[in-house]
Amino acid sequence: MSRYVRAQPHWPIRRWVSVVGLVEAVLLLAAVAGGVLAVGNLNDARSRLLDQSGPQLLQANALSQALLNQETGIRGFLLTGRREFLDPYLAGRTQQDDAAAELRRLGALPGTQVGDDLESVLRAAGAWQDAVTKPTSPGAPPPGIGAADAGKTLFDRVRVTLGTLSAHVSAARDVGRADLNGAASQLTVLLLVIAGLVVILLVLLWVWLRRVITVPIMRLAAEVRAVSATDDIHRPVRGTGPRELVELGSDVDAMRLRIVSEVSELEQAHELLDTRTQELERSNSDLEQFAYVASHDLQEPLRKVASFCQLLERRYKGQLDERGEQYIAFAVDGAKRMQNLINDLLSFSRVGRRAGEMTMVDTGKLLDDALGNLEPVIEETGARIERDELPRVRGEGPLLTAVLQNLVNNALKFHGEVPPVVRVSAERQGDEWLFSVSDNGIGIEAQYAERIFVIFQRLHRKSAYSGTGIGLAMCRKIVEFHGGRIWLDTEVTEGSRFRFTLPAPDPSPEPEPARTAHTEPLIETRTGNEDA
Length: 532
Prior knowledge:
Elements: H1 2-7, H2 13-80, H3 86-105, H4 113-133, H5 145-230, H6 243-295, H7 299-315, H8 322-350, E1 359-362, H9 363-373, H10 375-381, E2 384-387, E3 392-395, H11 397-413, E4 421-429, E5 432-439, H12 471-481, E6 486-488, E7 496-503
Parallel strand pairs: 2-4
Antiparallel strand pairs: 1-3, 4-5, 5-7, 6-7
């Protein structure tokens, strides 16, 4: 069978199962046919023995007994002359006819050995009966001892034929018994053969499953484990055995090649990411140098321009016409706005780049700091600040203070004719806190809900509202740096309402860090949002 497996290594499992099943079916059918034949032989032998040979022997004995009864009655009559001795003879004649008829029914017909023996017995019995019944007829002379002796001689011939009949019937019974025993032995042997054949088929099936199915699967699994254990994804995987396993090995190898391709692409992506990271580090270094230049070298000329313009304004005040004083005012104002723009750009660039430690902070205290920075504006506008109890969150205090200060400053700056009313609140929603800063100001149209968060985007002229247009862009950058989001609530019909979320901290307690003064804050809190 192993030689056959090697000759056809790529048969599909369905064909293997069909061939093996066909072979087993043929062998089992042959065994079943042999069993049916053996059972049939056993039934035939038992039928011959029980339905023919045995009853024939019984009827032969009954015939012999009937003739003996006749001989006893006739002999008593011949010796004594008393007619009551003829009763057994008459009954024996009836029994003789019945036994002969039953023997013929059981197959003792002329032309068969037992039938010929029966005919011989009946002829001998008839000759004897003819000889011994003459003295019993009316008018016959009284019988004597001579008649009895003559009848005995004829009956001895009957005895010989009866012996022959009994011997042949007994021999037929013995043959039937031997046939029955032989058929039983044959059935036993055949059952043993069937059992052995089933065992052999099971063994062959196990060997076939092992050689054709189990071993190729284990070999394929070993190759896959070898690739996994050694991390050698470049090692090919090949399937052997039936076609399905070969195709499975091809599919696994195709998957391996795909993984190799993806790993290669991933390595290239990592290399590209490393290159981009290095470039980003160089860019950050250049940005830091720019920030240093912007905070020192660029602001010094601006301060000089502003200072000398102010000196010119004070020294020549009243000596210049109105246009000249206006030019000087324009120069001073431009220098100051340029200085504010540089400071705001520095603050915007520092968000997320020079990250401090994330600690638990009380946003209520941060709001207090923001309102303290905005106290002059609050007094000037006559604003009223309403606030709810604010939660503790994890974040950088100076950055979150800048967010609250920018949003409140926007509400104070863009107010209507009535004094501004600003409300700051927060509510828990799932695993985050939702903050809201609403006001009763001039409001913002829904079409500008995204534009206001873009850097340098303004909705009003510079002469109407001061500022650089960086405030809300910086708020979005700070909130997203903390894992939240910020947006304009466009469903508000009066005033405006800004909302932002911050992740809710874990409930595990954490000691509050000591609050320190900021001599050089990361975000200069003096600026507000001037882009609406």
